[in-house]
Specification:
mainly alpha, 2 helices, 2 strands, 52% helix, rod-shaped
Length: 102
């Protein structure tokens, strides 16, 4: 039995007898192609979670950087106030830092 490939683009799962019956009767052959992959489209889920994760990590990074900057500013202010001693203006003296004896 000679089996030839029919002309045109034909899905490999169409039985030969269905094709030959369609050729003999003149009825059209309808091909239904399912080109959507089965299962969950991971790219649709992964991209929003990646963006949300990056935003969360970035926010925590900014918070950590601000904490470090505020700590450095507090230490700097304390050092400057300790070195300057008491500051007075118009008879009012303001001591900016405690002495080490007290």
């Amino acid at each position: 039995m000679s089996q030839h490939t029919p002309p045109g683009h034909m899905a490999p799962h169409i039985p030969a007898d269905a094709y030959q019956r369609a050729q003999a009767t003149g009825q059209p052959v309808v091909f239904v192609l399912n080109d959507t992959p089965a299962g969950i489209p991971w790219q649709r889920l992964l991209i929003p979670f990646a963006i949300a994760g990056a935003a969360a990590l970035g926010t925590w990074g900014v918070v950590a950087a601000l904490c470090v900057l505020m700590d450095a500013a507090a230490h700097t202010a304390t050092t400057i106030a300790g070195a300057a001693g008491p500051i007075g203006a118009g008879g009012i003296t303001l001591k900016l830092a405690r002495s080490k004896n007290a």
